[in-house]
Amino acid sequence: MANTSTLEPKLQNGVADFKAFRANLFAEGVIKKEPVRVVLELLFHIAVVTTAIALYVLYNDFTVRFTSMIVLSVGLLGIATNTHTSSHYATSHHRWFNECLTFFGYSFLMGFSATYWWHKHGVHHKNPNVVGVDADIDLMPVFVMTSEEFDRSKGTARAFYSIQWLVFPFALALNSLNMQRHSVQHLLGMIIRRRKRDRRLLIDAVLMLFHFMLWLIVPMFFFSWLSVLGFYLCQRVIFGYLMFIVFAPSHYPHEAAFVRPDGGTGNYVLSQTATTVNYRTGWIGRMMCSGLQYQIEHHLFPDVSHTCYPRLSAHLREYCNNHGYPYREINWDLSLWKSLLVLYKPKEVEEQLNFPEKGIGKK
């Protein structure tokens, strides 16, 4: 591997070229904000959710109710991934409109603190797969994701980590509930620490209260508390698995490098492309993911509506190939399988990212 000084001119030129590349795409109309298309997709997901709930309530049949629960969870996932675009202020040019949709999707419908998501996801985008910084790849102390975490473990913990791949699929049942818990803790902590009133924190807290009223309190006037609580928990469990299915395949496979805080070379494009992979989906997956299958495009163009990603992908692939940046795309089922394999064989951490022709990194 060449030393850093010999790479700096190429790295700097690469970033400058990317800025020009980005500006040209905006000028040509390849990338932009498309609020009408994004909102129409959101309305479709809302229709799916309301239809699924209606079928569940009207038909006292196990098959219908089980199917309705799956459809409901998929619809809620569509709302979450759609308003994820809004959380990046990428749906509309109007900041207030993006925030309203984010609060609607996350705080109100999903019960996830929007302000927590802005904080957590903002750190992830600036430091994708950076060990010790990106919380998305930090599952300690319950599970280990890197070989050095495993090597540091001893005794009972080491024995458990040796078989963690058997336990992990069951633990995913708590995925959504765990994120909900973290978001509530974060929101309450922010409210307590803030001396000045923050409008967004207040809106977030009120809408999260409305979430629990909508899904738990109000239904208990019509159904038994046990059936209402069972419905909610069942939906949360299914949604937890769906979260992993959509979010993990972009950053967990071994192709997506784990890197140290000082190992990114300072090159924005390389740090995003070396730690991220795309995955291919069918039309149902496209509706569920709202562009998240185009994770490289999303990381390099987070302020662009996800509806632009399909036409952007060909341009970005060509740019990456011409400038030596990695651009990986694998089938969804394979990327999901590789995401699970990381729990069987934890990843090594890259000391220094580099261009593909010289190896993604140096151990």
Description:
The protein has 363 residues and is mostly helical. The chain has one domain (4-362). Helix content is 64%, strand content 4%. The chain has helices at 4-28, 35-58, 62-87, 95-110, 114-126, 147-152, 155-162, 164-171, 175-193, 199-217, 225-247, 268-273, 283-289, 295-300, 309-323, 332-344, and strands at residues 258-259, 278-280, 329-331, 349-350, 352-353, 361-362. The protein has a two-stranded parallel ribbon with strand order 1-4. It has a two-stranded parallel ribbon with strand order 2-3. The protein has a two-stranded antiparallel ribbon with strand order 5-6. Helix 3 (62-87) packs across helix 11. Mean pLDDT is 90; it is low at 1-13 and 358-363.
Spell out the key features of this protein.
6 strands; 363 residues; two-stranded parallel ribbon; mainly alpha; two-stranded parallel sheet; single chain; 16 helices; disordered C terminus; 4% strand; disordered N terminus
Give the N-terminus to C-terminus distance in angstroms.
Answer: 11 Å
Computed Rg: 21 Å
What structural class do the secondary elements suggest? mainly alpha
SSE string: HHHHHHHHHHHEHEHHHEHEEE
Low-confidence stretches: 1-13, 358-363
Number of strands: 6
Share in β-strands: under 5%
Biggest sheet strand line-up: 1-4
Number of helices: 16
Indicate the percent of residues in helices: 55-70%
- Overall outline: globular
> Main β-sheet, in a few words?
2 strands, parallel
Task: Tell me the number of structural domains.
Answer: 1
Average pLDDT level: 90
